Amino acid sequence: MVAMSTKKKRVIVGMSGGVDSSVCAHILKEQGYDVVGVTMKIWQNDDMANDGGCCGLSAVNDARRVADSLSIPFYVLDFREEFKKTVIDYFIREYFKGRTPNPCIACNRHVKWEAFLEKSLGLEADFIATGHYAKIERLENGRFAIKGSFENKKDQSYALYNLTQFQLEKTLMPLGNYSKEEIRDIAKSIGLDVANKPDSQEICFIPDNDYGNFLKNNSDYEALTGDFVDINGNKIGTHNGIIYYTVGQRKGLGAFGKPMFVKNINPTKNEVMLGSDSDVFENSLICDDINMMAIGEIVGEIDVLAKTRYSQKLAKAKIKKDGERIICNFLEPQRAITPGQSAVFYDEIGNILCGGTIT
After folding, report:
1. Which end of the chain is more exposed for a tag (fewer CB within 10 A), N or C?
2. CB 31 within 8 A of CB 173
3. What's the half-sphere exposure (Cβ side, CA atoms, 13 Å) at 287?
4. What integer pLDDT is reported at residue 55 of this predicted model?
5. Sheet (strand 127-129) strand order
6. How far apart are alpha carbons 181 and 198 in whole angstroms?
7. What pLDDT score does 216 carry?
8. Where in the chain is the domain with CATH 2.30.30.280?
9. CATH of domain 10-132+173-189
10. Known catalytic residues?
11. DSSP per-residue string spanning 182-233
12. 92: helix, coil or strand?
């Protein structure tokens, strides 16, 4: 008779020191996994180490205390090189191209999954896990997909659209069926000090939220003044440099006698086009750098629910493939569709079909 293996599946949990990843580790341990906690060291300097949101020294200390409380091993792994190359350098590049990047999405794909998963598999892990509010499901067509929760106000599926099939297969997300309030209640019930810790809101490598100053001080690019123009191309003022503006912005533009909004940024001409609020609504978008998720390909034109930013409500649209790009046409005009942000397309039950970067 051959003895059955009783070895537990090992899962390495990315622990930020917050309540979500802490309870994630607890739930997986309760489910019988061999849980190991890891915090990713990404800070580039002492300021970021002390105040770096989800990955600074305070986060490391909180995560270590939680791991001790849960009686699980804990390590800090160095991802500074990967973070600088794929997140910080990308962030700087995009702004000087007149686009508005999403560093969290870049970090998810390249650091929290690509680099972290590779290192975890080298440590004989079967899975990695995170405290994201989303679910991973294997569909009837055999593909893995992130499923958003339309009712959960903390749903984080939008920021996870660009994960690969292999990454999804190797990932656990146990918080997908919980609300934030329920997670905090669990943390309190098991005596975790982080139960009431507030969520991190700022970009982790810009704790003071002054990204313009960060861009000036951390790049060789120069933010040159240029022209504000109206929708007809007429000069109406002078801007401080395209890095300070994003599509849909109203504040910080100066006085024009009426409310004005950023409609477009032209890095070639170093121009920022302004218009009225109605001028920043668009009926369509084009995106590239496509990641297919629930479906392997787009055949013809298909109906979707679309998001063009994290906090946006889902909007009905139709998408079709155009070479390596996706063309999306909305049933109703959408406000401030922004180059550099992501367009994510869902089916009617919440599965992410695909997504890409708005051009």
Report:
1. N
2. no
3. 27
4. 61
5. 74-78, 34-41, 10-14, 127-129, 171-172
6. 12
7. 86
8. 222-275
9. 3.40.50.620
10. 107, 204
11. HHHHHHHHTT-GGGGPPPP-S-TT-TT--HHHHHHHT-S-----EEEE-TTS
12. helix
Residue 179 has which token pair?
A: 């609300």
* Tokens standing for residue 196: 């009431």
Angle between helices 57-70 and 19-30 (to 10 degrees): 20
Fold of 281-358: Elongation Factor Tu (Ef-tu); domain 3 (2.40.30)
Give me the residue label for tokens 């046409």: 329
CATH 3.40.50.620 in the chain: give the residue spans: 10-132+173-189
Taking the domain 222-275, which CATH number applies? Answer: 2.30.30.280
Quick: pLDDT tens for 32-73: 999 999 999 987 766 655 554 556 677 899 999 999 999 999
Burial 301-340 (b: 16+ CB within 10 A, else e): ebebbbbbbbebebbebbbebeeeebebebeeebbbbbbb
Instruction: Identify the CA nearest to 13 among candidates 30, 253, 1, 329.
Output: 30
The pLDDT value given to residue 148: 86
Which residue positions in the chain have pLDDT lower than 50? 1-5, 52
